[in-house]
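Predict the structure of CDHR5 protein.
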Amino acid sequence: LEIFVTILNENDNDPQFQQPTLTRFVREDTEVNATIVARDDLSATDADLDIIYYELTATVQGTDGYFAIKGVNNPEIYLQKALDYDKFQSTRLLLYARDRPVGSPDPSRTATATISIMITQADTRAPWFLPCAFLHSDTSVCISSPYYGTVNISEMAVEPLILSPGPIYAIDPDYTINEKIVYSIVGGNTDEVFSVDADTGNLTMNKIVTSPDSFLLQVMATQANNARKYSVASVEIKVINKSLYPPHFEKGLYNGTVGAGLPPRSFVFQAGDASTPLTIMAADEDFPDV
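Done. Here is the predicted structure for CDHR5 protein.
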């Protein structure tokens, strides 16, 4: 009597990842659809020789939708949406490997791999002149104000010019890279009156100014490693007469009278003289005709 025995395969083995934990560093300027983790690094095996079904989830809030797998049977992870270092710098992905499809009535066994994604900042922004203000809630754009300063006519300033709202200063907004900034004047410098220190941004005079005409300089801040990353700020320099005397009031104390119940913008009159409006006058010996 010949007896043939067929051994039935029982689902008694969990899928196994060769590397249950992985870490990948991804530049924020990585192109969409680029492979982040190759299939060979993520494929799971099953001693029961079952077909493996994969599912990928993100565990960090706000990072859903950036990474995906190529298919339910293909665990290769690719970039699905453009990254922004200012939005998040890392996330953690969980890759599930099941030996039964989702929704199957048969019990399934599952393995989990953890993939840590670390976002690295890329050199994507031109320099920012400070101070600057963000455009609404967009922290990728910072709008700077023009710089202002004065020089005295026919007088040579030895020290760097004092400007408002502050000295000429720019930074690399890709702050983890923090590339060196180089300054130069690219416009408005009539007769080469001014020069700017390439390293510090200090603005100095090369010669005296004999005309009362103002200067509107264009100062450029360029990254030392990439001349295509630059920004330009305007610097208005007004030419004025040197002030030798401070302004002063004609009197140290003024007295006025006002009636109750008067409408807004009614005159205040001199005390003791209800017919003459109170006038407060100042004078300056530098400007006798003003």
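Residues 128-240 form a domain with the Immunoglobulin-like fold (CATH 2.60.40.60).
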